[in-house]
Amino acid sequence: MSTKDDAVELDQDVARREKYRKLAEAGVPLFPYTAPRTHEVGEILDAFAGLTPAELEEKKPAVVVPGRIMSIRKMGKATFFHISDGRKQLQAYIRADKAGLEAYERFGLYDLGDFVLLSGTLFKTRTGELTVLCDAVTFLAKCLHPLPEKWHGLQDVELRYRQRYLDLIMNPEVGEVFRLRGAIVAYIRKFFDGRGYLEVETPMMHPIPGGALARPFKTFHNALGIDLYLRIAPELYLKRLVVGGLPRVYEINRSFRNEGIDAQHNPEFTMLEFYEAYKDYFDMMDMTEELLSGLAVDLLGKDEVPYGEHTISFKRPFKRLKFLEACVLHSGLAPSRFEDRKGLIEFAAGLAPDKKPQSYGKALDVIFDRFVKDHIVQPTFITNPPREISPLAKTSRDNPEESERFELLVAGMEVANAFSELTDPAEQRARFEEQAQERRRGDEESHAVDLDYVEALEYGLPPTGGEGIGIDRLTMILANQKTIREVVLFPLLKPKAP
């Protein structure tokens, strides 16, 4: 059923296309090839906003500046309007006696959302607003649909994600989130390049899914006639490179996991993974503190950042807490419950019937996810989780039931995961076979047996520390965004109903 708003929008579409036709009849180039300019909007504001009206009158700065029309206020033979460069807006003023009657009448064929190129001089109005007095306004592109109203038309959150370009047009602050994300990635590259790391690229299609415990996306390669899996992590390929003699490698990678979608999860996401020979997970903790503390200070000017109702401190050192201790401290369960292993497994199975944990370690993992994570707000290294949920990490030097691994939790989210990498090929094969048994029992997230990786280890992997850091979640925290969809330009959505 059509609505009144639909009818109004359709009328505006018709009116805009009629103006478009008239521009064509007037001989206006509808698709110009270039727009030579002297300034962007932001450059003009930065350079001239501080000048007084008298100084502007004396200098009469000439500018040629492009932008999208965001407001129009017509007053007889003169019109004020604003253009935007996607971040800032600049006022312009066109008069028939200055630009010419023909040019002024042609301006009447322009709409909100159209791109134009202004040529003129700068002055300040009586209210003190920096303004371009236009000699000419050149057409660059037509917006054939009405822009949504800032507070009415963009209340539909799904519309913002599905048509992100409209979100960016109407909400410039959204663009700042993604500029921050770009700056985060740039800082990370500078950090690792400066420490002698080599940035590499590894395959995104794997014959065997590996590197993490997750359900993969499956595809088929026609020419080779084989099943392939979108990577769930680049880990096993990166460690092959360390075997091959590249002692410090990193990759900023897209990974894919066929799992649920919520505030912290998107099926495709971006990770940093890095590996360094002759290091262990203690070294990875130190490097992580250095990276994240420096990142916050460099990009935001401080090591304390707001996140929701909390203030997150990236001041070094971060807290360190063992996995089992965290479960006892934050789960709300009596400490004696953790001594009854069989009872704890049964309790966890009731909490997660889809996972059906069969072991004490996997039961602890369920309890940690259900009861503990949300209590960890400040950056905290959760160390030494159960060995059986860490098939790629070395066994702890202190406890054979634990692994030399940590997760960095911030604001209830896992932001990083790191190991003292398992380097014994025989033990790695045994771990894979344990995981295969779990898979046969129905655990679809168990790690597959990768004999090719085991063979690579047989050529010798030196002591190595490795880590993955989630770029999306890190951006969420530094940009103070509560859902991953706010930091992914085009999050996965169901197709629109016909």
What can be said about this structure in brief?
This protein is 35% helix and 24% strand.
Count of spatially separate domains:
2
Largest sheet: 8 strands, mixed
The CATH topology of the largest domain comes to BirA Bifunctional Protein, domain 2
Oligomer: single chain
Question: Helical stretch count?
Answer: 16
Structural class: alpha+beta
Give the overall average pLDDT.
Answer: 93
Name of the level-1 CATH class of the largest domain: Alpha Beta
Radius of gyration over alpha carbons? 29 Å
Q: What level of helicity do the residues show?
A: 25-40%
Provide an overview of this structure.
This protein is α+β, with helices and mostly antiparallel strands. It has two domains: 4-147, Beta Barrel (OB fold (Dihydrolipoamide Acetyltransferase, E2P)), CATH 2.40.50; 173-318 and 378-486, BirA Bifunctional Protein, domain 2. The protein has 16 helices and 18 strands. It has helices at 4-25, 41-48, 53-59, 96-99, 101-107, 157-162, 164-170, 172-193, 235-243, 281-300, 323-330, 341-351, 360-372, 425-440, 451-458, 471-478; strands at 62-75, 78-84, 89-95, 115-124, 130-141, 198-199, 205-206, 218-221, 226-230, 248-256, 268-277, 304-307, 310-313, 319-322, 380-383, 405-410, 413-420, 464-470. The protein has an eight-stranded mixed β-sheet, sandwiched between helices. Strands 1-2-3-5-4 form a five-stranded mixed barrel. Strand 16 (405-410) and strand 17 form a beta hairpin. Helix 12 (341-351) packs across helix 13. The longest helix has 22 residues, at 4-25. The radius of gyration is 29 Å and the shape is elongated. It starts with a helix and ends in a 20-residue tail after the last helix.
